[in-house]
Amino acid sequence: xxxxxxxxLDAISMLAREKDINESILVDTIEEALKVAYxxxxxxxxxxxxxTAHLTKKEGAKLYARKVVSEVVEExxxxxxxxxxxxxxxxxxxxxxxxxxVTPSDFGRVAAQTAKQMLVQRIREAERGKIYDEYIExxxxxxxxxxxxxxxxxxxxxxxxxxxxxxxxxxMPGEEYRDDDHIKVYVLKVHRSGPESNRTPQVYVSRIxxxxxxxxxxxxxxxxxTGLVQIKSIAREAGSRTKIAVxxxxxxxxxxxxxxxxxxxxxxxxxxxxKNEKIDIIKWSADPAEFVANALNPAHVVSVFISEGEKICxxxxxxxxxxxxxxxxxQNARLAAKLTGWKIDxxxxxxxxxxxxxxxxxxxxxxxxxxxxxxxxxxxxxxPYDSEL
Length: 389
Description:
By secondary structure, the protein is of the alpha/beta class. The protein contains 13 helices and 15 strands.
């Protein structure tokens, strides 16, 4: 048994372990390379001869031409006469397949070069496939990335076994990125390969996606990780402010307190990762009036009028808290609307009283129990919806 034969197979086994690739894939590649090299060496096209290759410890690399046993030969490359087949083995019959050794004595150099090229290509394809399989499972998750290079339209980050790209539209406003910075990123999507110049899997990441906030809280809050506290919705204006609605499936657990953590430690860790982005943690409620009132935190809400048909909440707040409820440039009301899924119109108590008088209603005639309805208001006056909010 030749040591060269053993060395070749041992090298394949070692390479398979090193690259974490199925050994049979590499063996198949080399056998295919032997057939390609033979055809090139003999100037045969792929249909000119039915070839098969075998790589074994006993015989090493061997190449065979497969021919069908026939009584009449019309295609010599694909058929063999019965009488000739019987000389090879006496039990052949018409229709049987005969394998004839056609391994050239001087085949080594050409075959080795072809095998090397195909082997390198197959290993690269296998590695790309493994990387894709690994990272496709990380879509919608967060990873720790190391900034490799910063360009005007994108930054490129190291994600472990591959490179990630964060396009300019996914930059957090006001955040600066420098080489070797460690940042948490949200995996948006994974493409099997990039442009022709870069055929490795392409991983796109983000710093502005609401999912980044969700995953950070899952990391910081054990009650969320175990499912005792649920994140119902998130509204985010990255770099500025986020509202997150949470609900506890266990009555004894305060969902807001769990997310804030002892002395605010849990939410503070999230805020720190987001470069001091403000975070409002809101208690979710199945009652839309209560949910909307909570979502307008930090403003105090006097009453909420629900219009189910229009999907509009008309909210009344104290005069001194109108600007707080609306927020700078409408941000608080805008985020509350995104968080709850309701259009929200905010009025001060004075504005509501004026609207009522315009409709011939004396505000003093409304009983306290009618003034603070829990559900849809059934009175006979309307608060116009302000679409700019």
